[in-house]
């Protein structure tokens, strides 16, 4: 089968091609042969099912690479192949797990490629994926692998703060944009250092801004903080610095440390004497 035939077959199977890269090029090649055969079959009855099948396949087998083509894709016309590097935790323990995010990215890519007015020069989008394991070691290593293989023009993720922090720093010299739905940490606010990072949601610093607006609205000046210093440190810190920075604010604080025994009643009695809220 030559290239043109293969591409025409791809187009028939709703412009989606699943493929496995040679083992030398990737670490995790996991698309099952059964799955590939299913998608490659040109039977039209499969077409309407393809999205459903794809969702099921995603649930069953992590796939390293997926290609999505523009429906009007003409192999004889020059077109750009856009590569996504999606680096997210595979574990469904996290709200941004690969299993939840990847189908959304695929649907978005299909919609965009179906619209002849959007990204007209792009004929194919290749989505490469890797497990960040929410780890500051694994996430950046996967990004380095993708960079070396030329597998990413843009990174989606990582989302865990430490992982995305490293990737966003390296990406400055690689000149690869990083788009993350996580990266909440205040440290990542620095637009000079992290200039290729785009955060899609509000951040912990925004929590500080919101709190400051509430203080202004209700003319609060005395604030008491009782917080878990282990789990909530990063969320609390921007709020705390905002409040402390106000010339007219009086701040009382009671951190709760990991593994310490806390007598909440005495905490609250203390707080009651020193703060109104
Ligand atoms: C992912 O992280 C967990 C702990 O956070 C660890 O037990 C596991 O071995 C890691 N997996 C990989 C593939 O690195
Ligand atoms: C307290 O100071 C801030 C500026 O630091 C000001 O915006 C706010 O209105 C002041 N609040 C009151 C109750 O005076
Ligand atoms: C605290 O106030 C100083 C001076 O007004 C300002 O430069 C700094 O950015 C403020 N810090 C925070 C965390 O808002």
UniProtKB/TrEMBL annotation:
It is found in: Membrane. InterPro entries: ANF_lig-bd_rcpt, ANP_Clearance_Receptor, Peripla_BP_I. Its main location: membrane. PANTHER family: ATRIAL NATRIURETIC PEPTIDE RECEPTOR 3 ISOFORM X1, NATRIURETIC PEPTIDE RECEPTOR 3-RELATED. It holds the Pfam family ANF_receptor. The chain crosses the membrane at residues 46-69. This is Receptor ligand binding region domain-containing protein.
């Amino acid at each position: 089968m030559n290239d043109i035939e293969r591409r025409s077959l791809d187009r028939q199977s709703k412009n989606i091609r699943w493929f496995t890269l040679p083992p030398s090029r990737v670490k995790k090649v996991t698309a099952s042969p059964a799955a590939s055969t299913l998608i490659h079959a040109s039977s039209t009855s499969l077409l309407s099912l393809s999205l459903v099948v794809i969702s099921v396949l995603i649930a069953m087998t992590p796939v390293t690479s997926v290609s999505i083509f523009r429906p009007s894709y003409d192999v004889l016309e020059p077109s750009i192949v856009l590569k996504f590097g999606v680096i997210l935790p595979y574990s469904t323990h996290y709200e941004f797990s690969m299993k939840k995010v990847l189908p959304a990215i695929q649907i978005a890519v299909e919609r965009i490629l179906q619209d002849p007015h959007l990204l007209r020069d792009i004929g194919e989008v290749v989505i490469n994926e890797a497990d960040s394991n929410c780890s500051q070691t694994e996430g950046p290593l996967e990004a380095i692998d993708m960079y070396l293989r030329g597998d990413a023009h843009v990174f989606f993720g990582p989302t865990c703060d430490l992982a995305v922090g490293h990737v966003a720093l390296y990406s400055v010299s690689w000149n690869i944009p990083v788009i993350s739905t996580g990266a909440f940490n205040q440290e990542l606010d620095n637009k000079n250092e992290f200039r290729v990072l785009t955060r899609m949601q509000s951040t912990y610093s925004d929590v500080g801004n919101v709190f400051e607006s509430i203080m202004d609205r209700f003319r609060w000046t005395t604030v008491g903080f009782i917080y878990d210093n282990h789990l909530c440190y990063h969320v609390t810190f921007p709020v705390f610095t905002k409040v402390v920075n106000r010339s007219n604010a009086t701040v009382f604080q009671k951190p709760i440390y990991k593994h310490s025994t806390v007598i909440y009643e005495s905490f609250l009695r203390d707080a009651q004497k020193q703060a109104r809220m």
